Amino acid sequence: MNLFNLTIPRRLRFLTMLLSAALIISIIISWPLWGSAQFYPDDLLIPSLSILSPYSGLLAILSVLFLVVSLFHEKRRIFILCAILINILLVALDFNRLQPWFYIYNSMILLLVFYNGRVDNASHFTYIFICLQIIPAAVYIYNGIYQLNPIYLNNEIMDSLVGWENKLSSRQFQFLMKASLVLPFIQLICGVGLLIKPIRFIIIPLSILFHVLLLILLIPSDQNQNYAMWFMNLVFIMLVLFLFSGKTEARYFSYSILLQKPLFYLVVFAFCIHPFLKLNSQWQRQPDFLVRAGLSNEKKVSVSESEFLLLPDYVKYFCEYKNGAFEVKLGKWCRHELLSDPVSGKINIRKFNNSPALARSVVKDSEDVLSSLQ
Known about the structure:
The chain is mainly α.
C-alpha cells in the first residue's frame, strides 16, 4: 500500500478503522478508568445518572463490542454512532474519563460518521478530510502553547521523565531535562507546518521523529503507567501519514465550500476557538485535548493534621505534608489507580462520607495556572 497514491475516500476508510482500533485498544489498556470498582472518587456530571455508575464496566464493554463489529460490518457507521453515544454516557458518569486521547479519537471518528462512503462526491469527502486535518494540527499547536508555562516546564517534565532518573547519571539526566524543554516548540512547529503544504515534506518526518522520541522517553514504567497516552503517539504517527502525506486534495475542490458546511464551524470552534478561550481563563471545566499541560498536579485537596488521621490508609499514601497541612495529590492518586491523569477540577467525595476533611474540601481549580499563560 502506497500512502502517497491513496485516494481520499480510501484514506477515510483506513482512518475509520484506525480510530476504531485505537479506541478499542486504549480503553482496554486503561481499563481501571472504565470499571466501577475504582476507589478514586468519580465526578458525575449528572447526579441523577448515579444509578448507572455500577454498570460502567458493562457499558464500556458494550462500546468496545460495537467498535469491533464496525471493523468488519459494511454498515459500520451505525455501530460507531452507538459506540459514541455510549462513550458520551460514560463521560457523564465520570468526567475524568474524558482523557485527551478519548476526546480526540471520538471527535475524529464522529466526523467520519458523516462520510457516506461515496467516491463520486469530491466536495463532500474532501471537506470531511480537511476537517480531520484541522484536529491534529490544532492538537500540536495548543499543546505547544499550553506547555509553555512554568508549572509544566519545571515540574511535569520532571514527573514524565522520572523513570530515566535511575538509568542515567545525574549529569545525563539534567541534560535530558534541559533538552526536553524544546518539545513544546517542536509541537508548535509541527502544528503550523502541517497546515502549509509546501513544507509538509519536512514537517511530516519531524512529527514522526517527535512521537518516536516520546515513545522512548515516556515508555511505561512504575513511575509512568499512562499506557493509553503512550499509545497515542503510535496513533498520531499513523494519523499524520494518512492525513498529510502525498496528494491530499481532490481535483476542482473549492475551499469556499467549507464555509457552507456547519460541521466545519463546529470543528473550528471545538479545536481552535474553544482552546483559545480556555487560554484566556474562560470555560475552565469544558472538555479539551491538552496533554499534561501543567494542570494535573494543581488538583489537590488540603486537609489539617487532625483531619488527615480520619482518611483511609490508602488515601494517606497520596498525601504530602506542606505548610502545616496535608495535601491529597489527586494527580498522583489518579495516575496510580486509574492509569490516567486527572481531568476533572473537582471530585465526588460520597465515598468518603466518614471523612469530614474531604467532605468540606474543594479541589483547587486550575484558574491560577491558566492565568499565568496570559
